[in-house]
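Closing statement on the pyridoxal-5'-phosphate sub-project.
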Amino acid sequence: MRIEPFALERFFAEHEFGAQHVLCASDCETLSVRELLAMEPGADEAFAALRLGYTETAGGPALRKEIASLYEGIAADDILVFAGAEEGIFLFMNAVLSSGDHLIVHSPCYQSLISVAAAAGCRVTRWDALAENGWTPDPGQLEREITPATRALVVNFPHNPTGHLPEKGAFTAIADLARRNGLLLFSDEVYRLLEYEEGDRLPAACEIYENGVSLGVMSKAFGLAGLRLGWAACRNHDVLGAMAGFKDYTTICTAAPSEFLAALALRRRGLILARNLEIIRGNLRILDEFLARHEHQFSWQRPHAGPVAFPAVRFAAASDDFCAGLLRECGVLLAPGRLFGAAPEHFRIGFGRRDFRRGLEAVSGHMREKPA
Ligand SMILES: Cc1ncc(COP(=O)(O)O)c(C=O)c1O
């Protein structure tokens, strides 16, 4: 298999652990093992006694039950667990799609949603979301792009990198369009549960569509990326079965300590999500003030969910030089728009972590020294 380099992940591999302020992370503030274990009486003893054998290929029953409880009308049998959302994307594109299939992918996007499919021999059309439309992709374009070879629609709401969240009706219309055309709906929902207004939360694709695949993960809303634990929720067991069969050749099963800690975090999700949303809301206020002060230098569409936004520089056609200068001179890491395959004047900023204010102060200092 030949696959193009993953621009964003290569960028992180080069800079993430050397930068002083990582201001483009897409996850929430993490927890230590100790903090997590302290959330449930007896958990530390149980964790110490955990046996480190193989786990069930589909994921442990207790874990799958907790994951299923995130959805309406979804049972433990409708869940397949794997190593991070990234493995889920790889499994779906390779096991469920075939070479020559056409798919339509919401763009800009997390690159693997396009590159893995392309490497599997699929033809990919981008469904473009534009800043001038508030990052709402055009439903008319989606309908026009469907051909007899189209097999799947791929969407990501809440969206990385823009934080866009459509109205419920618009999302249901996408599921209806998929149903009318006999298409699978692969719905990357890794930022779900981070809506700023709970009432804005979309139904999961797996709830409203029998051929909807909802992709979830512990990395983002829960801040537990180090567990490397994700899942697909889907009522079509042919789809889940194909993904499980491919997984026999990738990871076979997930790590027992990760399953234990993920199940615990899901049982205590009220606490963890409340903490993370509080951090996001506080940081968003700081970002609001910063962007209001620098209105002549940056434009943006305020996000509706999640820990990322995608502002644009007004003073250049691309954000690359601005991001490179910030890293070189202040140690601040922002992710240029080109890493998301579109909108080069934009950059991703992440505000899910506690040290956000300090990083943004460094950006403010840089802007004072070098007004653009
Ligand atoms: C939209 C989207 N999908 C999938 C992933 C992969 O998640 P994980 O790193 O947990 O595998 C990411 C990570 O940034 C993402 O932003």
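The chain has 14 helices and 14 strands. With this model delivered, the sub-project is considered complete and its resources will be redirected to Aim 3.
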